[in-house]
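Hi C.,

You asked whether I'd gotten around to modeling the 393-residue construct. I have! Everything is below, sequence then structure, no commentary in between.
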Amino acid sequence: MKKIVVSGLVLLAFFKIQAQTPKDSTGYKPTKLKIEEVNLVSSYYRQNGDNASVTGGIGSQKLTDIANVIDVTLVKYGKTGKKHTLDVEIGVDHYTSASSDRVDLQANTSASSSDIRVYPSLLYTAEQIDKGRSFAIGVGSSTEYDYQSFNGTTAFIQKTKDRNGEFTARFQAFLDQVKIIKPIELRQGQDDGGTEARNTFAGSLSYAQAINKNLQVSLTADYVQQTGYLSLPFHRVYLTDGTVTQENLPDTRTKIPIGGRLSYFLGDHLIVRAFYRFYTDDWDMQSHTAELELPVKITPFFSLTPFYRYYDQTGIKYFKAYGEHTAAEQYRTSNYDLSPFHSNFYGIGVRMAPENGLFGNPHWAMLEFRVGHYDRSTDLNANIASINLKYKV
């Protein structure tokens, strides 16, 4: 995790040299494309449990993941007052998974037991400042041992005349290829190692409104359509007669999440942030998510943010535990991510943003730490820690 951060510091030194053009105070004078800020984020995740999908819903779910992301924001102002923003991001994750070792039923033999995921992305936004209107378009990809994904996004944002409201329409597409790696006992010569397509198309509408100086609210509705190979080929399913087969799920899935967010400022030192989402799909899953954050400003430049999230879901109609499926069932899975469960996630964040910058350097604008603990009713638990460092030119 630390290696990427050190590399990021080297990049920042280069960025500082390249971005000496002074800022334009009006926002309307033409400027060259320049770096505005850089964010460095690193996180460490570790989980444990006993319902691994690779071994049919039983077995170790131990997993560790180290993620590192560098995000660079570049800005340019045009002659007509249009603001052009380019976000360039690259992320690199390294994970180890005990359950993936069991694809071949022998420890340390599966190529996916330890893997690296690389996910770069670009997002361009053009904002017509005087009209409060923006248009965004972006592309990205994600690559790991058994999965290749390409994605595109486009968005339209329109602010109200008084600038207190904002409407957003967004569309995203994910075009994926899943490598067919079956459990070793189900392989038949050249059948293993091919690829299958999985496509996801998502549309989103949202509206945010400042009700008054203390209260802000937003509403979001999404529609998600998935088609193609929606199973994972190395997930085993054990039947009532003791035989083994692989996970098989329908080749279409429709998801509809609806959510709302509220922020209320209680004086100068406390903010209440609340979020709720309802989700339903045509695999008979429904879920509820409720989240609460309470940022407390200890000083003008130092704050603590305790947070809590509760989640509850019904299982999909194709889920059964180890050894409970029958051969007559067309669709089947023993993946506990698709089972009925509820979970709790809680922790705290610490944010420092001194007026004169961190370490007395005005370019180092913010440092934030977050730690959290996740606990699920299926006996899965996890801990996560992250650090975010912001550099402003």
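If it helps when you're writing up: Confidence is low (pLDDT under 50) at residues 1-27, 107-111.

Thanks,
B.
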